[in-house]
């Protein structure tokens, strides 16, 4: 029998209400001990009841609450579950929890409620992982993908792929156990066909992983350019609020400033860097080192040029840095009249998208935002978001599966005995199984659920 666990499930701090959750076979017993309903009677399944939390040892009232008992398995954990809605302050919650713990529950570990939902088979491991992505989502697209995964979209893809491999494994086993030359030939050709198909399914999922990572963690965008071209103004315009310092003195953006925002539902982590330029000033040198670093770490670089003055040596130096694959150039201060046009910059930076902007007028910003979001999808048609890999653990396992499949294909092609081919097919099958939590060890579960918050 699993023990009964309890925790405060709402965020710390002051709130309208705070919820204590109790799960396990003993939860009803604990509820009976600590909760006194206003109208006497047995707790009814799934009925919210008004009453008080009272310490039975001294009769002291701890809080005025609403309490509900939910009979398993149709609950979050798939066990008997009690929720107590306390007043949302730290003291009533702490005191209620202490009493609940004293009356037989144990403090839940991080993510333990969700872990039980997984262990009890209500959700699979990838769905459990989606719970944490959903809670952490800071942008709409992150949320959309998390909720799809919670509903089982990724699990469905993985199960479909595994089904094909399982069929192949059954064929292999039959042939290994009852060898027959004619059937064996058929087995090789059928197997090769399945392996090609499954490897392409796996590759398709892996192809979604770079977009998936960005949707989950955010697109890292570095804004670079010499001082005074309008980098901070750009950052502010994108943030629509003035958190980065806008100044007319060159070289004062000494450090990098980082802000997270959401552009069309995609989380974007913006860094405004000190201008990359040769300097003897020590502090500024550090800033420049950081610029180069954030430049290298960025998924996308926005190079800002001031179109109202001729290009300087500094501009040209910075322009040497940029790579077409991950750069968008903007020619700013269009309102002052452009000495250098976007077309002129396009000729200097072949293969790089160039946009004319004015931070004062707000022109070119919509185009820039579209260009930024376009980078997330790498210009491809929108990927099938319902089958997207956003989690590094899943990505690693898909890579393992892909490798085993390639090995199996090579062995089958070389006409190696089916027993040998089977080993790799089985490895691929198991790697995919680990994504949804089949036959995973405690170490992996601990790792996954340690990312959770208390009370979830
Ligand atoms: P940074 O050093 O690259 O971060 O440049 P800032 O954003 O601090 O801008 C430097 C100066 O240029 C400030 O006075 C801004 O108000 C001004 N500025 C920025 N963008 C524009 C623009 O599009 N048009 C005009 N006229 N001024 C701008």
User: Reading side by side through the largest sheet, how are the strands ordered?
Assistant: 3-4-5-6-2-1-7
Can you give the helix content as a percent range?
40-55%
For the largest beta-sheet, the strand count, sense and barrel status come to: 7 strands, mixed
Overall pLDDT, averaged?
A: 88
SSE-based structural type: alpha/beta
Q: Using DSSP, what is the number of strands?
A: 13
Structure characterization notes:
This protein is an alpha/beta fold and 456 residues long. It has 16 helices and 13 strands. It has helices at residues 27-34, 90-102, 112-119, 125-136, 140-150, 153-177, 181-207, 209-217, 231-239, 282-297, 313-321, 342-348, 365-376, 392-413, 418-435, 442-449; strands at residues 5-8, 15-23, 35-37, 49-54, 61-70, 81-88, 106-107, 219-224, 257-263, 266-272, 300-306, 327-332, 353-356. The strands form 2 sheets. A 7-stranded mixed sheet has the order 3-4-5-6-2-1-7. Strand 11 (300-306), helix 11 (313-321) and strand 12 form a beta-alpha-beta unit. The protein is flat, with a radius of gyration of 29 Å. The relative contact order is 0.12. It binds guanosine-5'-diphosphate. Guanosine-5'-diphosphate binds next to helix 9.
């Amino acid at each position: 029998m699993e023990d009964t666990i309890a925790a405060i499930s709402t965020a710390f701090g002051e709130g309208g209400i705070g919820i204590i959750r109790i799960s396990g076979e003993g939860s009803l017993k604990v509820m009976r001990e600590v909760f006194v309903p206003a109208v006497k009677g047995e707790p009814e399944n799934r009925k919210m009841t008004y009453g008080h939390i009272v310490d039975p040892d001294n009769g002291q009232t701890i809080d005025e609450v609403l309490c509900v008992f939910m009979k398993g398995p149709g609950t979050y954990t798939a066990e008997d579950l009690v929720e107590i809605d306390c007043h949302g302050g730290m003291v009533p919650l702490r005191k209620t929890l202490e009493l609940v713990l004293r009356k037989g529950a144990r403090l839940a570990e991080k993510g333990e409620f969700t872990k039980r939902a997984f262990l009890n088979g209500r959700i699979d491991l990838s769905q459990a992982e989606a719970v944490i992505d959903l809670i952490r989502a800071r942008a709409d697209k992150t949320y959309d993908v998390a909720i799809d995964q919670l509903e089982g979209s990724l699990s469905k893809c993985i199960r479909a792929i595994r089904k094909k491999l399982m069929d192949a494994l059954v064929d292999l086993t039959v042939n290994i156990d009852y060898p027959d030359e004619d059937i064996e030939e058929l087995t090789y050709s059928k197997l090769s066909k399945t392996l090609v198909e499954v490897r392409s399914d796996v590759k398709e999922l892996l192809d979604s992983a770079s977009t998936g990572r960005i949707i989950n963690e955010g697109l890292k965008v570095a804004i670079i350019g010499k001082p005074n071209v309008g980098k901070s103004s750009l950052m502010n315009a994108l943030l629509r609020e003035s958190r980065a310092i806008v100044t007319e003195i060159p070289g004062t953006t000494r450090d990098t400033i980082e802000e997270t925002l959401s552009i069309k539902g995609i989380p974007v982590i913006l860094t405004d860097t000190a201008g990359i330029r040769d300097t003897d000033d020590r502090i500024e040198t550090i800033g420049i080192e950081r610029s180069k670093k954030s430049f290298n770490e960025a998924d996308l670089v926005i190079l800002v040029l001031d179109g109202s003055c001729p290009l300087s040596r500094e501009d040209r130096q910075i322009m040497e840095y940029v790579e077409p694959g991950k750069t968008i150039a903007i020619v700013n201060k269009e309102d002052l009249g452009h000495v250098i046009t976007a077309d002129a910059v396009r000729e200097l930076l072949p293969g790089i998208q160039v946009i004319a902007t004015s931070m004062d007028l707000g022109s070119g910003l919509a185009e820039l935002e579209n260009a930024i979001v376009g980078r997330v999808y790498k210009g491809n048609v929108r990927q099938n978001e319902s089958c997207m890999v956003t989690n590094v653990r899943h990505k690693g396992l898909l890579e393992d599966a892909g490798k085993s499949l390639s090995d199996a294909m090579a062995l089958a092609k070389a006409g190696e005995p089916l027993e040998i081919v089977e080993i790799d097919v089985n490895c691929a099958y198991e790697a995919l199984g680990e994504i949804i939590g089949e036959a995973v060890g405690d170490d992996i579960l601990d790792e996954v659920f340690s990312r959770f918050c208390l009370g979830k």
